[in-house]
Write a structure and sequence with these properties.
Mean pLDDT of chain A: 81
Order of helices and strands of chain B: HHEHHEEEEEEEEE
Structural class of chain B: alpha+beta
Radius of gyration of chain A: 24 Å
Structural class of chain A: alpha+beta
Oligomer: heterodimer
Shape of chain B: elongated
Helix content of chain A: 10-25%
Number of helices of chain B: 4
Distance between the termini of chain B: 44 Å
Largest sheet of chain A: 5 strands, mixed
Shape of chain A: elongated
Mean pLDDT of chain B: 82
Helix content of chain B: 10-25%
Low-confidence stretches of chain A: none
Order of helices and strands of chain A: HEEEEEEEE
Distance between the termini of chain A: 81 Å
Number of strands of chain B: 10
Radius of gyration of chain B: 22 Å
Low-confidence stretches of chain B: 19-30
C-alpha cells in the first residue's frame, strides 16, 4: 500500500509540475517570429470593368499547401476564403464592391494576407486604379 | 450579489457540521479512524471549474467590431469552463481539524476562428484566436473533518484558505493582424481565498477517496501586459480592465494519511 501511495503521489506531483511548467513559458510570444513573411506590391486595374477579377499568386519552390485569406479590404469579395497551392501557384478570384470615397485609389494601399500552411504569411499590397465601382 | 450568496452558502454549510458533531454520541465516532489515522494528510484533487464572472463587456466589444455573435459567445463559453487541480498537506492536530498548505491551479482554454469587419474598419479579418488562462494559488489552510453517525467509513470535511493568487493570460493569433497585433501576455497578483466542502470515504485507514465542491475567489485589479515587440501594445481580451477569476469547482480526489 505504501508503494502504491508513493507511485500515485509521484504521478500527481509530476503532472502538476508539468502543467505549471507549461504555464510558465513565454515562448508563444515569439511564435510569429518563426513565420516567413513575404510582401509583394501589385496594382489592380478597375478600368477593365470586369465583373470578376483574378490574381495569380506564384511562390517558387512552395510544395502543395493549403491557405486561408486572413485579412483583406472589405470591398473585395472572394469566391473562396480558403484554397490550395499546386506547384507553388494559386489563383485568387474576387469581385470589387463600392470603394469608400475616402480611399485614394492609387496612393493608399490595401493588403491581402494569405496564411499558408508550412510556409508562413504572404502579404499582397494592392493599389487600385480606375474609377470607383468599376 | 452572486458572490454574497455563495459565501453565505459556505459559511452556513459549516455550522450544521459542527452542531451535528457536538450532538453525536461518543460511541458513534469510528474509533478505528480516530485512533489509527496518520497525523499527516496529503490530498490530490482534480475536476472542473466554472468562472462565473461576467465577460459581457469584452464580448460586446468584439461584436461591435464586427465579430459574429454566435462565434464570440462560443469562444467565451469555452473560456468560462476550465480544469481544476489542487494539492494540499495538513498536519492533523485532532481527529476533527488540522492546519496546512493548499496549492491549486485552474486552467482554461479557448480557441475560435473569428471574423471581424466593422464599418469603422476598412479590412475584413479572419483569424484564429487562442486564449489560455492560468490561475495559480497557494496559501495556508484550515481543515475540519466530521464523522457520520453510524457510518464508520464516511466523513464530511471542509476547508478554508486565504493566500496568494497569480493570474496568467496568454492571447495568441496565427498571424500579426491590424486588429489584434502581436501575441499578448497579461499577468497579475492578488489575494485570493478558497472554500471547500466534500465527502470522504475510507476504504482503508491509509487513504480516502473524496468528492466535493469548492469556491475560489480572486480579482486582479492591476495587470501587466507584455508583447514580444515592446513597441506594439498588442491586444488583450480584457482590455486591461480588472479580471475577476472567481470560480466554482467540482472535483474528485484521493487523500493519504501518513504517520
Amino acid at each position: 500500500m505504501i508503494q502504491l501511495i508513493q507511485i500515485i503521489s509521484k504521478g500527481v506531483i509530476y503532472s502538476i509540475v508539468f502543467i505549471c511548467m507549461m504555464s510558465c513559458s513565454d515562448d508563444f510570444l515569439n511564435s510569429h517570429e518563426n513565420q516567413t513573411i513575404v510582401t509583394v506590391d501589385t496594382t489592380i486595374s478597375l478600368l477593365t470593368r470586369s465583373s470578376q477579377y483574378q490574381y495569380t499568386v506564384n511562390i517558387p519552390g512552395l510544395s502543395d499547401s493549403f491557405y486561408s485569406i486572413g485579412n483583406y479590404p472589405k470591398w473585395m469579395y472572394f469566391d473562396y476564403l480558403v484554397g490550395g497551392f499546386i506547384n507553388g501557384s494559386t489563383v485568387l478570384t474576387f469581385t470589387i464592391g463600392d470603394i469608400p470615397e475616402t480611399f485614394a485609389l492609387v496612393t493608399e494601399k490595401s493588403e491581402i494576407t494569405l496564411v499558408i500552411d508550412n510556409y508562413g504569411i504572404y502579404v499582397i499590397e494592392i493599389y487600385f486604379t480606375g474609377s470607383r465601382g468599376g | 450579489m452572486r458572490l454574497h450568496w455563495i459565501l453565505t452558502f459556505f459559511v452556513l454549510s459549516l455550522i450544521p457540521l459542527q452542531t451535528w458533531a457536538d450532538d453525536a454520541p461518543s460511541d458513534s465516532i469510528p474509533q478505528v479512524h480516530q485512533m489509527e489515522l496518520g497525523q499527516w494528510r496529503l490530498g490530490f484533487h482534480s475536476g472542473f471549474a466554472y468562472l462565473w464572472a461576467s465577460t459581457s463587456n469584452d464580448e460586446n466589444q468584439l461584436i461591435s467590431d464586427g465579430a459574429d455573435e454566435p462565434t464570440v459567445d462560443k469562444f467565451y463559453k469555452q473560456l468560462h469552463k476550465g480544469y481544476y487541480f489542487s494539492f494540499d498537506v495538513y498536519r492533523m492536530f485532532a481527529h476533527k481539524w488540522g492546519i496546512g498548505i493548499k496549492y491549486s491551479l485552474m486552467v482554461s482554454y479557448a480557441r475560435e476562428y473569428i471574423r471581424l469587419g466593422s464599418d469603422a474598419n476598412m479590412n475584413v479579418l479572419n483569424v484564429n484566436i487562442f486564449n489560455r488562462e492560468y490561475v495559480n494559488y497557494v496559501g495556508p489552510s484550515f481543515y475540519m473533518q466530521q464523522w457520520f453517525k453510524n457510518a464508520r467509513a464516511w466523513c464530511l470535511y471542509s476547508s478554508v484558505s486565504v493566500g496568494y493568487a497569480r493570474y496568467r493570460d496568454e492571447f495568441e493569433t496565427d498571424f500579426v493582424s491590424p486588429y489584434f497585433g502581436e501575441n499578448t501576455l497579461a499577468t497579475g497578483n492578488a489575494f485570493g481565498g478558497s472554500l471547500e466542502v466534500g465527502f470522504e470515504y475510507f476504504p482503508t485507514k491509509l487513504l480516502s477517496v473524496i468528492g466535493g465542491v469548492g469556491c475560489f475567489l480572486a480579482k486582479f485589479d492591476n495587470l501587466d501586459v507584455t508583447t514580444a515587440d515592446g513597441n506594439n501594445p498588442g491586444y488583450y481580451l480584457g482590455g486591461g480592465k480588472p479580471r475577476n477569476v472567481s470560480q466554482l469547482d467540482v472535483f474528485l480526489g484521493i487523500k493519504f494519511y501518513l504517520k
